[in-house]
Amino acid sequence: MKLKDIGEHEFIRRSLSKYLGHDIFYDVYTEDGFTYKIDGFQLSYFFSFMDYYDIGWKAVTATVSDIITSGSKPRIILSSIGVNSEMEDKQLEDLFYGIIDATEYYEAKYVGGDLNNSEKNGWIDIAGIGTKLCDIKSNPEEGDIVIISDEIGFTSEVFISYLNNFNIPIHEISKLRVKHPIVNKNILNFYKEFCNYIVSSTDISDGLLISLQNLSDRLNYSILIEEFNINPSVYENLRRYGYGVNDILKYSGEEFSSLFVVKQEKAKEMIEWLYHYNFSPKILGKLGKERENEIKYKGNKLAISGWDNFKGWY
Length: 314
Prior knowledge:
alpha+beta, globular
């Protein structure tokens, strides 16, 4: 069967699980106090309002997002880049400028990597190493609270407009979230403050529903959603063009917000803390029954949708 028919996520569940077991649902690998992550994409991933500096910045942020959201401080960044020899040297220099700028912003150190020739558009892969600040002792229970650190929908607005030849207006903040995403480094202080009450976490990169399903599979509990944290201005804009909540969720990739499963007794205090440090958090819902790996909204099971590297949006 072709990969475009199976899809990336199903291939991981069906094939890689034979080698990695339950660890396939984790975004990072941790051992002896160190956290490891690699992420990347094709260099053809470009919008008209972006340049190669933005690509370098985004690639580092994509990797660092997983490291920070896992409760680790980024330390080392490496890159593997493939470019066509017809590329202008200034463009490649801008790409590295974005990598180095982002690395410095996240208070890590860029130590080089690998540079290759590519006959086609090329690629960028970023590997990161972090040190663990919080060693989560996962002990999920029915009723644990699911928190999202920020509003979503900004990247959905860009992707949906793109699919409509950019005939749907886009808020400037939405363009900025795609062009120059930033992970709020205060997540690390959040971990220092509440480490003992955090059950699990992940970031949102392929879509909110995919991230929620990964949490459900990881913890082996259903997740019962009460409401979604969609930015009201984005929602109203897309609603005028016939798009609703399901569409916004489907195209909500690359938000790089954080999802936390936390203990009930500290959830309110955590929300207040996040507000104080300039997040826009919300309680999405709670863990349901054990051994029911599904996402429910108002009692109905949700079909999982989002971005898949082999199938595209599904």
